[in-house]
Amino acid sequence: MASSRAVPNLKFRQLRGQRSPGEFAALVRRSAREIGEQVACDARYVGRVEAGEIRCPNYAYERVFRHMFPSLTLADLGFSAREAVRGRAGRGRTPRAPEPYNSTDSTGSTGSTIGTIDTDNTKSTNSTNSTYSDEESDVLRRAFMTGGTVTVAAASLGFGPLPGTEALRSDLPRQRVGASEASAVEAAVRQIRLLDDRHGADGLYRRAAQPLRAAYALLDAGATTRGSTTDRLAAGAGELAISVGWLAHDSGRLEDARSHYAEALATARLAGDTALEAHAFCNTSFLARDAGRHREAVRAAQAGQRAAGRLGSDRLLTLLSLREAGGWAGLGDRAGCERALGRAHTLFGRGPSDTDPEWMSFFGEPELQALEAQCWSALGDWARAARHAQRAAALQDPHFARNLALYRAQLAADLARADAPAEAAAIGEQVLDALADDVESTRIRAMLAETARLLGPRRSTAGVAAFLDRHTAAAAPVRV
Q1: Residue ranges of region Disordered (predicted)?
Q2: Does the pLDDT at position 136 exceed 60?
């Protein structure tokens, strides 16, 4: 049974600083919205934390606090280890069969009805209701018991129910993994891509790991089956690995991304799925270029073209040719870059077709222009790079908010290097607007930081000082 003597959390109180509990709670709620979380933090919650009544926050609050204080651990925030809290609360107690999940409790906090004072939960007014895990683990445990692994994936991502989850009950035999499960994995892939298009990767990456594990668990469970369902599960799991890899890539976790892309490639090879293989090579090439492994970028792009040659998609071959061009540009091989760019333009001119992969919905004239801009930038032709980046930004559909911000960040950097500081600052302001709204991308922030560095010596130019000051304010850590 938990101790009745709470130890005040002085570290957390110190972090609040001069703000009132209500003001700090408002800051927590705002930070939650920045990463797509929903927490009903109020002054009472802050008071309970500081009084030591909440020894460890639930997972949602933990993600928010880590966003607010990225350099601090839970211990640095004054909390106890989660396993220590759970172990103490759970000793000698048997959890009841789960009740229907309640989205709000009597205080308005998101969560389930539970009965412990150790973890971040609200004490139930009914003493017989003694489930004791925190709000997120409670959701996931219920999902495991009633809905299966992909329902857990949906819960961990904040999605609504996914198609086919009724078929994932844990009491079903493994050999009955089938079309419904494949549909659920495919739906998860689409949802991640949709959220990435709108918001960027930073708030999604960690939450996307659970559905990826679920997808591969389903693939393993269905390994004894044969036919199209197994093929769909393999393709879905591989595409999900690539999507999660991209989230890692865009949020600056390059080694994690490399591992996910390798997992997708292995899945493709085992399943004999050339479309998945081409996609994995495409992203591997992109990652290698960003990591400075330019020769690897060229080889991966060429391997992707060999796989894609059997698929009949000129648009896919266009993108892979652009990836190759980027690798040649990184090597300083202008001739090799121009050959690959010429091939890309020829292929793109043939237009789209029904054989183009679903995941290429983002690819069109704006992306072609942006990737060419990156090539010229790598070759040091800043003015030419800026012209292509400008076309990319002008043509981009605003729905793809993350890509529009990326193209503008590329443009700002190219303009700064092309000795157009006022224009670079103006575009940089637009990128800051996007970052202040819904876009979260470490990649974009890094590009904008480089632009700010380049513009530092030009502070006296009209508009530059305002951009630099705003960039500095936006980059500053949260102060409480």
Answers
A1: 86-134
A2: no
Radius of gyration for the alpha carbons in the chain, expressed in angstroms and rounded: 25
DSSP 210-274: HHHHHHHHHHHHTTT--SHHHHHHHHHHHHHHHHHHHHHHHTT-HHHHHHHHHHHHHHHHHHT-H
Domain boundaries, given as residue ranges, for the chain: 10-126, 136-272, 403-480
Question: Is residue 473 exposed (0-12), middle (13-18) or buried (19+ Cβ within 10 Å)?
Answer: exposed
- Residue entry with tokens 């029904």: 354
- Nearest in space to 229 (alpha carbons), one of 271, 270, 266: 271
Residue-wise pLDDT for 246-255, tens only, equals 888 888 888 8
Name the percent of the chain lying above pLDDT 70. 72
Tokens of 207: 């939450």
pTM: 0.62
* Nearest-angstrom CA–CA distance, 337 and 328: 5
From 269, 287, 353, select the one nearest 316 (Cα to Cα). 353
Q: Quick check: 428 pLDDT over 90? A: yes
- Average predicted confidence (pLDDT) for the chain: 76
Query: Which pair of tokens denotes residue 267?
Result: 């899945």
